[in-house]
Amino acid sequence: MPHPAPLPPRLTGEALHAGYDTRRVLDGVDIAIEEGKLTVLLGPNGSGKSTLLKTLARTLTPSDGYVYLDGKDIHRSKTREVAKRLGILPQGPVAPEGLSVKQLVGMGRFPHQGLWQKNAQQDAEAIREAMAYTHVTEFAERNVDALSGGQRQRCWIAMVLAQQTDLILLDEPTTFLDLKVQVDLLELLSRLAHEKAAPYCWCSTT
């Protein structure tokens, strides 16, 4: 029985050159994020992992090269359309003071809430599922800044899940966390990639 043809990569970078001011960090980088896999970028501090993720997520424009999301140049696509297909969790995110966990997770629904298009029931269900999947439902009404580092990180991941994209970029999500918490988060990310069949990309240092 023939095996089905492999699906083409959802997100690719071709000959990427990028950096800050006059300092070049990426020099002709190629990358392809495969469907339904957890892709891990390993390297020491300063090797360009975060720069690559920022370029893939179009928060940093390359000086040369291209990033394609579903075959389209991501830097020429509309922001809202990209946000419906691609989620990103930057390194060390900070929530506004006094924000509850449920409110934070709800921020992931913004790409789906146009001026004339809102679906409260769909939003509520997406938020509920995201919190349940990351085991933060019990913290729903608590302030984000009152939680531990590992709990907060799960809340941020829940926010990205509520965005309901099937491609997520995570920039060093276990930084500064205890070893056990790191292991728990890694298990969660692995479970996400396999159970939801989504092409996650996780960026980490060695």
TrEMBL record:
InterPro entries: AAA+_ATPase, ABC_transporter-like_ATP-bd, P-loop_NTPase, Siderophore_ABC-ATPase
SMART domains linked: AAA
Subcellular location: Cell membrane
Keyword line: ATP-binding, Cell membrane, Ion transport, Iron, Iron transport, Membrane, Nucleotide-binding, Transport
Domain ABC transporter: 11-205
Topology versus the membrane: Peripheral membrane protein
Name recorded for this polypeptide: ABC transporter domain-containing protein
Pfam families xrefs: ABC_tran
